[in-house]
Structure formats: C-alpha cells, structure tokens
Design brief:
By secondary structure, the chain is an alpha/beta fold. It is globular. The termini are far apart.
Length: 246
C-alpha cells in the first residue's frame, strides 16, 4: 500500500472534490450555527465544506490541516477563514480555549486517525456545553456500494474497509469521551458520470492505494462503459454526530 502526500494531491482535490449536498445545512441546523458562532473543521483539506458553512451562516471559521499545500488552496476561498496547521490526534497542541467552539466537524478525515479517542477527548474540551462534534465518513455499506468505484476498481473495497473505522466503533468512542445523543445520518445524491477524468487523475485517495495493474484494468473498464453512454453514479457519506452535554 502506498503512502499518500496530500501536498501533491491538493490540485486534484481542488479540481474535483465538492461539498456533500445538504451536509453543511445539516451541520448548521444541528449545531445552531449563526453569526455569533464559531466552528472548526479538522482535516479541512481545501476547506470546501468550511467555506460553504461560513458563507451560509457568517460564523467564525477555523480550518486545521496537516498539509500546507491544502491550506494554500483553502485560502483562495472567498469565505473568511482562519487556517492553521495541525492534526486531529494532536488537537491539544492547538491550544484551543476550553468551551470555545459551537461545532467541530470533519469530512472524510477520521480514517486517517489511528486513535479517534484522543481526538474526541480534545474536541470535547474545546466544545461549549451543547456543542456538536460531527464526523462524516464512509460506512461498510457505502464502501461496498460506491458506483462506479466498487464496480470498476473492486480492489479499493478491502483497502477502504481496512482503513475505515466501523460506525458503531465511532459511536462507542464518542460515548466513552462523554458525548451524548449519538446518531448517524446518511447523505446521498445521484448524478450522471460522463467522463473518467477524475478517476484518471486519481482524485480519490483509494485509487492511489491499489496496484498499478488494478488501477489500469479498472480505468480501461470504466472508460469502455462510458463509451456506451453516461453512468448513473452515486455520492454518499455517513454523518456521525454527538453533543457535549449542556
């Protein structure tokens, strides 16, 4: 399995990655985010979700990511963002004021965190009473039913299952950290895929983690299907959400 340098992937992410439909609105409503609120996205990458949240609500917005080049792209958003280098498991090193945030969230990030409990404990301290922690990630069902990835690049399934935490394990870790009202919610949308550019450019990290042979075979298969017409594709995430007791 290859290791990934997200400084090198920043341009591809900026070209191809978009916010999950309705997720930002759900976060804003669940945490009661407004102009006087403060939100943080951990592992913000190019900060698509954080920028949309800031523009939607006018909230204070802090984005944290380990990779400088990702943050350089994030800084190009028109939204008013504070951006800092940092890692989820080292959240204590950010010296966030205790009980200062209304919302902490991450999108497609938690599978890089080997010890979610450390991150959750730090997030608990930084959240105000009643504040919300949300982790948007992939469930086993999502991974096995991605179209077209699971169909044309089946080697990604085991790669993704190996690195993703089960949803029930995340809910248990949130409970152990002191959070309450744990829940999960699926967000999904369908679209027509008309060309293979974002797959050819490996805009999805899982495509970097399979062999070159598996990738080339899958790309050839996907390209052949697209030559026959558009593909009905899907885009899904599971929001795992809990609250610091009021």
């Amino acid at each position: 399995m290859n290791s990934l340098d997200y400084n090198q992937l920043a341009a591809e992410y900026a070209r191809h990655r978009r916010p999950y439909p309705q997720l930002v609105e759900f976060l804003a409503e669940s945490a009661g985010i407004g102009t006087s609120s403060r939100a943080m996205e951990m592992g913000c990458g190019t900060a698509n979700h954080l920028a949309r949240l800031q523009q939607l609500t006018g909230c204070g917005a802090l984005g944290v990511d380990p990779f400088d080049d990702m943050l350089k792209v994030a800084a190009t958003h028109e939204a008013e963002l504070e951006l800092r280098v940092g890692r989820a498991e080292e959240i204590a090193a950010l010296d966030l004021p205790e009980a200062s945030l209304d919302l902490i969230f991450s999108v497609d990030m938690i599978h890089y965190v080997r010890e979610p409990a450390r991150y959750f404990a730090g997030a608990f301290k930084a959240l105000k009473p009643g504040g919300v922690l949300c982790t948007a990630t992939d469930s086993e069902w999502i991974i096995r039913n991605r179209i077209p990835v699971a169909q044309h690049f089946p080697a990604t399934i085991e790669v993704e299952l190996e690195r993703h935490h089960p949803i029930d394990a995340l809910l248990t870790a949130l409970d152990d950290a002191g959070f309450v009202e744990g829940q999960q919610r699926l967000f999904e949308s369908a679209y027509e895929l008309t060309d293979a550019t974002k797959y050819r450019e490996k805009a999805f990290s899982s495509l970097h983690l399979i062999s070159d042979e598996e990738f080339e075979t899958g790309l050839a298969s996907l390209t052949a299907e697209l030559a026959r017409g558009p593909i009905a594709a899907n885009n899904r995430t599971c929001a795992v959400l809990a609250r610091r007791p009021a």
